[in-house]
Amino acid sequence: MRYGGRARVNDASRRSAQRPSQRSRHGDKARSVAFQAMRAIDEGAYANLDLPARLRRATLHRQDYAFVTELVYGTTRMRGFYDAVISVAGSRRVEEVDADVLAALRLGVHQILDMRVPVHAAVDETVALVRGEVGVGASKFANAMLRRVSERSREQWCERVVEGVADEAERLAVLYSHPAWVVRALRAALIAHGSVSGVDTGDEAGGREAIQQALVELLEADNAGAKVALVARPGLADVQELVEAGGKPLPLSAYSVVLDGGDPGRIAAVRSGRAAVQDPGSVLLPPALVGVPVDPVAGGGERWLDMCAGPGGKAGLLAALSIGYPGDVAVFANEVSEHRAELVEQAVSAAQDAGAEVFVGVGDGCSLGVEEPGGFDRVLVDAPCTGLGALRRRPEARWRRAPRDVAELAQLQGQLLDSAIAATRAGGVVAYVTCSPHPVETVDVVQGALGRNAHVSVLDAQQWVRGADGEQIQGLGAAPYVQLWPHVHGTDAMFLALLRVGDVAG
Question: Does residue 1 fall inside a structural domain?
């Protein structure tokens, strides 16, 4: 039989504040729910979809909800570091450990190293979990492993697991629990987007140090998680309504608030679709597209297209923006997946009820340029991407992507952008958006499209991305593009390029 093992920290300041130091007597049920969620994630489930459903079905005390959420999200984020600890503590590769045992050990190590759970409780409850889920023999193995791990502090384990690791990316990958290729990609992105000050001063050593510091801050931000942010869809709700419901305004966006906790579904505006859960970085981008001047055409009115609309956050915001827009607007939301198209329909329904003209369709965005050439004034391409900019919000994503995904997605992104350009009339505007900062998915895709479409020019996107005070947001990287960052702006790492489509004949 295959087994496995885990780690520990004494510094309370490094532990999660999600729980007090004493666990409730219902902890075994809470840990069981967390274990089942972890196994589901191992099999391909998404934490943000699977865990809430499990919590709704579970008969837990309310105070245990936060504990389970932190246990699942924190363990998933720090899995790489914990696996390194397990491997050293058990003198074996984690691949040799039974999958169920490994999942339980990861949960146990997270409690020992990074949560305010007494060591004896973390060990005893995890051993009991393994005994119930796997068997007595496995529980003895788990007990030995966790006690071995608890003999060292987190800081001591950090030193131990990178002994002999010379490559800096590999060291950071272990310590900050990201795949090494992701660490290298994020470093390249910080440089490519001009997001590190002092790099071009001629001080080579200082530049390397600045890049290293920014990279560490970014990795730490990925592991810190993200608070729930809400958008008040303009024309349907306002920020004050969300503030009165417990939200805190954000200086970054005139439409956004953040919640300290609780279920956003308790807020009436969210239940009615007048507000929604949406990252403030994502909220900034549709208004930028809508704000760019477009010369009117004969007959008046505008047609807006969200080419890759699922699950509907940006489509819902575009639909809301169309309500107060000067002139008639028809919004078209396209989604290749029927299921996700249904989510889009839900997202735009409140705007439709308020009079917005919104149409949701199912189709391949790559073919829209051929099917409706020059048919739209404004086109948003929120392209499928690796999601490397949303790792704090989607903890399992870092473990599911591979370097080969970047090239495959970049090809699709280029096809979608070409289609968007073809679907945009002369004088119209295209917004190319990703939630990945990877240069291959961002600037390279845009430059490739410009090379294939000589009638297209790049606009300065930075002047159209403005905060709640109406002023241009700082720290957006190298113009003409916009690159947001978790460690700088407190948002997902959203990328934006704005393109003006000219006359093909011209």
Answer: no
311 is in an annotated binding site: yes
Same domain, 343 and 263: no
Residue 237 counted as an annotated binding residue: no
Residue 364 annotated as part of some ligand binding site: yes
One DSSP character per residue, 74-129 reads HHHHTHHHHHHHHHHHHTS-GGGS-HHHHHHHHHHHHHHHHBS--HHHHHHHHHHH
| Catalytic site includes residue 385 | no
- Give the domain CATH number at 493: 3.40.50.150
Q: Is the domain of 451 the same as that of 481?
A: yes
160 CA to centre of own chain? 30
Please identify which of the residues 158, 366, 385, 435 carries the catalytic annotation. 435
Q: What is the pLDDT of residues 335-370, one digit of tens each?
A: 999 999 999 999 999 999 999 999 999 999 999 999
Q: Are residues 350 and 461 in the same domain?
A: yes
3-class DSSP state of 226: coil
Supply angle C-alpha 95, 157, 72, rounded to 5: 60
Lowest mean pLDDT among 14-23, 113-122, 472-481: 14-23
Domain extent for 166: 162-224
Q: Is residue 310 annotated as involved in ligand binding? A: yes
Which pTM was predicted?
0.91
Q: Where are the alpha helices (DSSP H) in 324-461?
A: 338-353, 368-371, 397-400, 403-423, 443-452
Check whether residue 169 and residue 40 sit in a common domain.
Answer: no
| Claim to verify: residue 55 and residue 90 sit in the same structural domain | yes
How many CB atoms sit inside 10 A of residue 46's CB?
Answer: 14
User: Is 371 assigned to a binding site?
Assistant: no
Residue 313 annotated as part of some ligand binding site: yes
**299 compared with 102, residue with greater pLDDT:** 102
2 is a domain residue:
no
Q: Is beta strand 256-259 parallel, antiparallel or unpaired with respect to 228-232?
A: antiparallel
In a domain, 366, yes or no: yes
User: Does the residue 6 lie in any domain?
Assistant: no
Band of residue 197 on the pLDDT scale cut at 50, 70, 90? low
